[in-house]
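Morning F.,

Quick status update on the modeling queue. The single chain you submitted on Monday has been processed. Sequence for confirmation:
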Amino acid sequence: MASQGVVVNYPSATAPRVPNIPASAWVIANAQTGQVLAAKDPHGLYGPASTMKVLTAITLIPRLNPNAYIPASAWAASAEPNDVGLVPGRKYQVKDLFTALLTISANDAAVALTQATGSFAKGMALINAEAHHLQAYDVVAKQPNGLPDPGQVESAYDEALIARQALKTPAFMKYDETLSARFEVKPKDWETLYNQNYLLTQYPGGIGGKIGWTISSEATYIGLARRHGVTLIATVLHCTSLQEITSAEQLLNWGFAMNGKAKPVGELVPPLATTAAVHKAHRAHPVASASTSGTGAQTAAYAAGAVVVVGLGLGGYVGTRRRRRLRYRREGGA
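Structure tokens below.
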């Protein structure tokens, strides 16, 4: 698993070849057994873009009351592109913010939820500590929404560890599989949120996942699917734009065909005991102070383009501001 190339054990010379996808790193793994069926540069460090939001969500969901209302700070409300439109000072229900986070990848919701732990720095410390609890030691999280920040990285292997924990978190799966929802930005001003992950509706057995994109990270993706009682995780990093979900589908198809046939190339390690995780996180990887700069600079780094969400009715987006946001490609850069 230390290889930077493709690692796979074919059971025979005639076994289906692992797909050649346009990504620098990927992993296909069985969520239940932990077996890694095949991988490419599994521990290579790449920008996560919005796949970081999966780690943010599994960290904060158990810590925040879903029925509580939390205020949006000016900082949270300024996070863009791809925001739900939070208004500074207005209070929003936690469960609505998680829905926005995981359906339309709302960058402002990620900041608001992180600050709800008491402070942005405390929230980021919790997020990094959760990564260490999962033994996801390749992770360096600096922004909860995955917007670019120097040194922020994840690996395809660690994203698989995070995805496995997401599968064990019922509230995460509920938010993540929501196809559409209504969000009240301010009194009588509602947005309709449509899930950007078309794996849910177009891939047989698709049960969840998260897409991401920035110029530096290129396309990133976590895909989750279940067939005949077998649950697979596909993670893709630094992929050609607009090819990330298709690439994950190809990996999932191969994984379902070869599960139980191909000898695994590695395994997903289990989480640490809570006490050990906290000790190891502080000893091995102290959390840096939260960055408060770069919102404008980060936003300027993104290329405009077309949002592509197949079969989920983007025509239902309402409001001039939302239509302007849709000029951003895919997730608006995160």
